[in-house]
Fold:
Amino acid sequence: MQAREHGGLSARLYDFTVGPLNITLKRRRLQLAPPRRGLRVLDVGCGTGTDLKLYQQAGCDVSGVDLSAAMLKAARKSLGVGADLRPGDAAKLPFPDETFDLILSTYTLHTIARARRAAVLRELARVLKPCGTLLLTDFHPPPYRFPAGWATRGIILVLEACAGLEHCGSGLNFVRAGGLPGLSFPRELSIRALQPAGGGAITFLLLEKGGLAGETTLRSEPAP
Structure:
């Protein structure tokens, strides 16, 4: 979950607390959006850069934006000078049109005010190349499979509460509004796959830029 720092504390402890919980999810993301040498990859809400590190090690050209100075500092330490890491608002990305082959956004959209999510999705579509891929990961509404889904949702609620009441409230509103499947996407983005995880408490949503306008091809799989 994309934490915000409190005096830098969350950035220092993030990989030790949240990181291990995301190991299985990272493997699933790599399967859905496999790295390829020379691929230009952007992580919106990149945190400490752990996802980008996997793509960098595979020979991808990696970039990231985050609002947290402490998170970006940790990411720069991990990724080195070869990564293009910038402070930035997801609704006003500091990149030209059609720059990236792949964009990742993990546990970021639920932190954004509902009224601004459409603007963020338009920005993601703007900087994505034609035939490029967008992989979103975020919370999913119930029902959840017992016991895995209930346990995952419980962990999410604890971590969200630790991030503050405003953050927690935004996450709850995101789930009540339908999560990722409840969002309205720009017409140039075609939905290719929806895969639940964590007993149904988390969703992977894979989109592609291009194809038929407004096309939606939704493939849902049982939650592991």
About this structure: The helical segments are 9-17, 23-32, 50-57, 69-79, 117-127, 148-162, 165-176. Residues 90 and 120 are 6 Å apart (CA to CA).
